[in-house]
Amino acid sequence: METRDWLQTELQAIEKWEKDQQGLWFWEKIGRLPFKLLDKVTPAFIQKKIGVLLDELGSFVQTGGQYLTQEKAILAKLQKHSQKETIELADVSSLPLSTMDAVGQELKTNRSKLATIQGATTGVGGIFTLAVDIPVLLGLSLKTLQEIAIAYGYDPKDRNERIFIVKSLQFASADVVGKQAILNELSAFYHRDKSTNNEMISQLQGWREVVYTYRDQFGWKKLLQMVPIAGMVFGALTNRSMIHDLAEAGMMLYRKRRILERLEKDEKSTT
Predict the structure, then answer these.
(1) What angle do CA 108, 11, 243 make, to 5 degrees?
(2) Which of 189, 187, 164, 184 lies closest to 249 in space, CA to CA?
(3) Which helix (H) or strand (E) covers residue 28, if one does?
(4) Going by C-beta distance under 8 Å and a sequence separation of 6 or more, which residues neighbour residue 174?
(5) CA 33 to CA 30: how far, in whole Å?
(6) 97 neighbors 10 (Cβ within 8 angstroms)
(7) How confident is the model over 207-253, as pLDDT tens digits?
(8) Rounded to whole angstroms, how far apart are CA atoms 59 and 66?
């Protein structure tokens, strides 16, 4: 039974997690430096690939593009965990949080394993396959966040949800100051402030900020992946870690939205 006290306790746990995310370890700061140097020596074909990503991410927010995921598989997982005969996306919001969490955890595990295999595969050829790894990992990240959105009853076909997904992606790879700023922006979704949502759209200036922040997260780990063959190990570990952390962030941010909506609904019903 999800009582108001239980929801409040869960909300406090998420807020504690948010505060913990705002600490950046020393080696993580160091890890962000190499790409500033790498820009000067990066082959033109990789620079061109980054430019393509900017366009693709913009297309994702506007239309969903090639990254828009199918919801049937996630609804099937929710149906299995809830033991209901049929489930539509509109029904998910009324499911227990425990059901949503179970599917979210399953997605986090499965996508982390997939990222491990993908990172090892693209790590074989060093810097040449790194050009493939970055866009593939971005696509997997967007797919993972969309699936988590559906698990918590939100529709990625909605443009505002895709903005939330991109901001969640940015949150997972931002520094201390950036994480706080993004949390402040996401409060618009928690309180359903439509005017602020419109402001958030304009803040994603050409999507460049999101893509370069996302890329910078690779740091020295991806530099190690540039070594042929040895890059298999580094690629597998790095990609697994990135998708695991991203999925965790997505679950926490979507879980917070669902809890706040239930608390708001409970408050209205008692007044």
Answers:
(1) 20
(2) 164
(3) helix 26-31
(4) 181, 182, 213
(5) 6
(6) yes
(7) 566 666 655 655 555 566 566 666 677 777 778 888 998 999 999 99
(8) 9
